[in-house]
């Protein structure tokens, strides 16, 4: 018998800037807050949960899903699994939970992600020889073999801008739209119901309650964006203003079998209909959402015109525009409440945040289907379709 995996609860923290409101708090601590709130909102008994699956990219080792589950006060008997599919980790955590439910492995899962780019540890290789006189060097993570190409993410965006002849002006205009839409969403309180305020201790005085995304720049202008220098190539077109931010945040969703939700008299928010992943050239990794979207649409039997809300992660404006060139996306459906350029990109948590945003926007706009998709460092794309209940 085919089993539906339904989302019954979805929350997130406010998104902080790197070095901002959440910098003093480890990711498993604020991650625990969203787990507790997600469970509280549906009133389930924690001992009935089968597993916690969390995305994370920069913890530096260990199993942060298990750590976060224990931090949240869940039973020692409850396991935890951390997934690192780079920027697709949060989405993949959700789909792994859905696949476990559909296969009959369990009935209730916590899925999501947590990330602190403020507290990311440094990566340094061990010397090849004992007592080496060569000083150690910090380095980034390798995402693909050098023979294929392992460029910094900003260079992949420049590669797409060149390949698709995307102008600096187009990127600035897209970035401005992201900021404007985000500012409007905050002003209208569209995120209020999905956000879990985080209490932040301070050295002196009362703790601060962090409850609003702090990365957006609502006063952004096209004139200001046009004055920014290229960030990655001297004669490039990609700037800090047309790139996603470095951020701290967490998100958690409760995912159940439909049978279990009915048994517990819980009304689902959405059903996970289909998911897909795809590989692409690492040198243009930002095009990943294109094949992933085509695959997930084929799996779901839907056409792009039937999708009401599209959450396409804004790693870079050039990257989103390139995907648009291939998919011909409706601008009135795409990132209607802003995206990572305006709210930031806490790597392992972003996918779950996008899913949470999509769920609440479907409800607000009376939409039916949402597509959540992201490019992935190393040359991948991931896409998921959910249906509102």
TrEMBL record:
Residues 267-387 form the Thiolase C-terminal domain. Residues 131-144 have a biased composition (Polar residues). Keywords: Acyltransferase, Transferase. Residues 6-259 form the Thiolase N-terminal domain. Pfam families: Thiolase_C, Thiolase_N. Its EC number is 2.3.1.9. GO terms for molecular function: acetyl-CoA C-acetyltransferase activity. The keyword Transferase applies. The keyword Lyase does not apply. It comes from the Bacteria. Signal peptide: none annotated. Belongs to the thiolase-like superfamily. Thiolase family. This is acetyl-CoA C-acetyltransferase. The lineage of its organism: Bacteria, Bacillati, Bacillota, Bacilli, Bacillales.
């Amino acid at each position: 018998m085919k089993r539906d995996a339904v989302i019954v609860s979805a929350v997130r923290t406010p998104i902080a800037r790197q070095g901002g409101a959440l910098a003093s708090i480890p990711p498993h601590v604020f991650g625990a807050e969203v787990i507790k709130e997600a469970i509280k909102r549906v009133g389930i008994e924690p001992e009935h949960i089968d597993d916690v699956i969390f995305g994370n990219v920069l913890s530096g080792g260990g199993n942060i899903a298990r750590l976060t589950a224990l931090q949240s006060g869940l039973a020692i008997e409850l396991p935890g699994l951390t997934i690192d599919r780079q920027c697709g980790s949060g989405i993949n955590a959700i789909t792994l939970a859905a696949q476990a439910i559909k296969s009959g492995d369990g009935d209730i899962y916590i899925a999501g992600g947590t990330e602190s780019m403020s507290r990311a540890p440094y990566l340094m290789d061990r010397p090849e020889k004992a007592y080496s006189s060569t000083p150690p060097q910090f380095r980034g993570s390798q995402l693909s073999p050098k023979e294929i190409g392992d460029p910094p993410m900003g260079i992949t965006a420049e590669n797409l801008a060149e390949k698709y002849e995307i102008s600096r002006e187009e990127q600035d205009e897209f970035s401005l739209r992201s900021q404007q839409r985000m500012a409007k969403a905050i002003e209208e309180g569209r995120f209020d119901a999905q956000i879990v305020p985080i209490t932040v201790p301070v050295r002196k005085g009362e703790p601060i309650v962090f409850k609003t995304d702090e990365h957006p720049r609502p006063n952004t202008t096209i004139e200001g964006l046009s004055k920014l220098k290229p960030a990655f190539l001297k004669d490039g077109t990609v700037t800090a203003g047309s790139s996603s931010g470095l951020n701290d945040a967490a998100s958690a969703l409760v995912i159940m079998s439909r049978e279990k939700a009915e048994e517990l008299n819980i009304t689902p928010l959405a059903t996970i209909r289909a998911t897909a992943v795809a590989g692409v050239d690492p040198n243009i990794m930002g095009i990943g959402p294109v094949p992933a979207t085509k695959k997930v649409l084929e799996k779901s039997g839907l056409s792009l015109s039937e999708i009401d809300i599209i959450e396409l992660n804004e790693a870079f404006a050039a990257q989103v525009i390139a995907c648009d060139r291939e998919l011909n996306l409706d601008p009135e459906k795409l990132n209607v409440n802003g995206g990572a350029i305006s709210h930031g990109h806490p790597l392992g948590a972003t996918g779950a945040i996008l899913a949470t945003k999509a769920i609440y926007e479907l409800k607000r706009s009376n939409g039916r289907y949402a597509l959540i998709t992201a490019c992935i460092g190393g040359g991948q794309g991931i896409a998921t379709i959910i249906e509102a209940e």
